[in-house]
């Protein structure tokens, strides 16, 4: 770039207050903290900065979610241990066991499928019980009706 | 996303664009974005010359001046150069418009002087 005959920005600038250069120099460390390299910032496609900025926002959100879920685990653990933290708890009191699996593990999703199957079975059982009760009531009513007929 | 000017001169294709480094060089050589249109004689030629720095740093100044002299639509050229310079700092501050779908080239123009003129 020195071959072109221009004054480079490293030499003394003719303009006392370089507004755009100043802005770029202020923004450069910010975008480097987003992961953009120095060379990319100064010599790359200017529009890449938009995507680095968006990526930084997504990363911040993800980190925030990770911190939140960590807080949930701590809260859950404290709640499970709380029975024995009580000063006057009865002897033999035991804390609840720590959660078996991570909240987002595949095993917990399988539990959801099992719960769904169990729910379906329970509904079928209830229907069967209702059918039995109805048939009992029908037999009892028929018996009563026949007795009354005989009496007459 | 990134406006470029593509042109051909004497059979050689040129792609003119800016990076932040070249805009900093532009300012170091006396360019002020606020005075871009107020002082056209200095600023437009300077901006045009600096747009060669990224992809064609070894092109001679007299060639660049010839190309500039042969540019047919100077007003359109000025608007495009300003847009290209604006993009270098707009990308730091603003989100792209929804309709922006990719790189926009200004146009491909053959600026080679005609054989008649050369004679």
Total count of strands of chain A = 0
- Overall average pLDDT of chain A: 84
Oligomeric state, counting identical vs distinct chains: heterodimer
Sheet with most strands of chain B: 3 strands, mixed
Structure commentary:
The complex is a heterodimer of chains A (152) and B (119). Chain A is an all-alpha fold and 152 residues long. Chain A has four helices and no strands. The longest helix of chain A has 46 residues, at 106-151. Chain A starts with 18 loop residues before the first helix and ends with a helix. The mean pLDDT of chain A is 84. Chain B has 119 residues and is of the alpha+beta class. Chain B is 45% helix and 16% strand. Chain B has five helices and three strands; from the N terminus they run ββααααβα. Chain B has a three-stranded mixed beta sheet, covered by helices on one side. In chain B, a hairpin with a 2-residue loop joins strand 1 (3-9) and strand 2 (12-16). Classes of the chains: A mainly alpha (152), B alpha+beta (119). Chains A and B meet through helix 1, helix 2 and helix 3 of A and helix 1 and helix 4 of B.
Give the SSE map.
The complex is a heterodimer of chains A (152) and B (119).
Chain A: H1 19-33, H2 38-43, H3 48-85, H4 106-151
Chain B: E1 3-9, E2 12-16, H1 20-28, H2 40-50, H3 61-70, H4 74-93, E3 104-110, H5 115-118
Parallel strand pairs in B: 1-3
Antiparallel strand pairs in B: 1-2
């Amino acid at each position: 770039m020195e071959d072109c005959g221009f004054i480079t920005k490293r030499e003394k600038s003719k303009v006392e207050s370089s507004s755009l250069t100043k802005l770029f120099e202020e923004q450069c460390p910010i975008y480097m903290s987003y992961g953009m390299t120095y060379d990319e910032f100064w010599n790359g496609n200017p529009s890449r900065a938009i995507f680095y900025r968006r990526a930084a926002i997504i990363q911040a959100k993800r980190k925030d979610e990770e911190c939140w879920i960590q807080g949930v685990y701590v809260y859950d653990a404290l709640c499970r241990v709380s029975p024995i933290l009580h000063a006057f708890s009865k002897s033999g009191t035991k804390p609840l066991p720590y959660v078996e699996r991570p909240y987002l593990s595949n095993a917990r999703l399988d539990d959801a499928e099992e719960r769904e199957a169990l729910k379906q079975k329970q509904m079928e059982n209830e229907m069967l019980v209702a059918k039995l009760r109805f048939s009992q009531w029908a037999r009892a009513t028929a018996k009563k009706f026949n007795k009354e007929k005989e009496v007459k | 996303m990134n406006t470029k000017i593509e042109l051909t001169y004497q059979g050689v294709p040129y792609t003119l664009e800016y990076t932040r480094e070249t805009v900093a060089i532009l300012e170091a050589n006396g360019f002020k974005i606020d005075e871009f249109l107020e002082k056209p004689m200095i600023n437009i030629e300077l901006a045009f010359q600096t747009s060669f720095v990224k992809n064609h740093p070894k092109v001679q100044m007299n060639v660049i001046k010839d190309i500039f002299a042969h540019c047919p639509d100077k007003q359109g050229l000025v608007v495009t150069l300003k847009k290209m310079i604006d993009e270098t700092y707009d990308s730091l501050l603003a989100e792209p418009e929804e309709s922006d779908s990719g790189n926009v080239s200004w146009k491909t123009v053959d600026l080679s002087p005609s054989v008649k003129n050369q004679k």
